[in-house]
Design goal:
Blueprint: H1 2-7, E1 13-14, H2 23-27, E2 31-32, H3 36-41, E3 45-48, H4 53-61, H5 66-69, E4 75-78, H6 84-96, E5 100-103, E6 106-107, H7 109-115, E7 118-123, H8 126-131, H9 133-139, E8 140-146, H10 150-178, H11 183-190, H12 198-208, H13 218-230, H14 241-255, H15 266-273
Parallel strand pairs: 1-2, 3-4, 4-5, 7-8
Antiparallel strand pairs: 6-7
Organism: Papaver nudicaule
Keywords: NAD, Oxidoreductase
Domain 3-hydroxyisobutyrate dehydrogenase-like NAD-binding: 149-269
Length: 278
Amino acid sequence: MATRLLSAGYSLTVYARTPAKASSLQQKGAIIVNSPYDVANKSDIVFTMVGHPSDVKSVVLGYNGVLSGLNKGGVFIDTTSSDPVLAREIAAEAGLKGCFAIDSPVSGGDIGARDGKLAIFAGGDSAVVKWLAPVYEVLGRVTYVGESGCGQSCKIANQITVGGNLLGLSEGLVFAEKAGLDVNKFVEAIRGGAAGSMVMELFGKRMIDRDFRAGGFATYMVKDLGMGVNGGEGKDAVVLPGAALSKQLFSSMVANGDGSMGTQGLITVIERINGKSI
């Protein structure tokens, strides 16, 4: 995402908690600084992409955080898959400073980010989201989904859907192989019908080729599904048996030491259940 913004002509100031991860961006012209405060102080628009809601809270609201350095009128955009309640808290804090906060997590993995084809779910002030359109267009397709927190809720619902698709594809491939089918021909046969999906297009070949390099880590899928399964009380509570099963299976990946695999590695769990050595 940062590379695409640089390529589009935007000037970038970057902070990375692991500095080595930003070295390639520095070579492309990004300015590297030592804190989120420094990024915000030098920027009109600040993006964050970190791991967990606790990371977002620390990087944005903590000491030397983004909001401590953001100038009046500045815009903060969180692309992390995070907690809707936290998104609303950050938006309120930003408003007290005369700034704006947009929660806009993304979907599409490493390929979508590289090709500028991410699905972006934006929550917050609709006028600000509209103003950000030229920036979002570099990254993918943005959909405004409602007030602060709605972007995060949309991403959680997205992950519930993706998790179910990954599980179905994993089971279909394992069944097809056990039945003696050529799994490549199996995927080619069904991709144009009702079973076809973007999950299949992004991950089907990777599963078959045993390419489990991460575009999105399995451990983060546990986090995202957990926010759906555990979120809401009373009238807001939703029973999600499919998401609960998906979370359990992704959790078993983490327990097996495979939390840093891509989410397509879910097939290894189904294979283990069926007695295949991984």
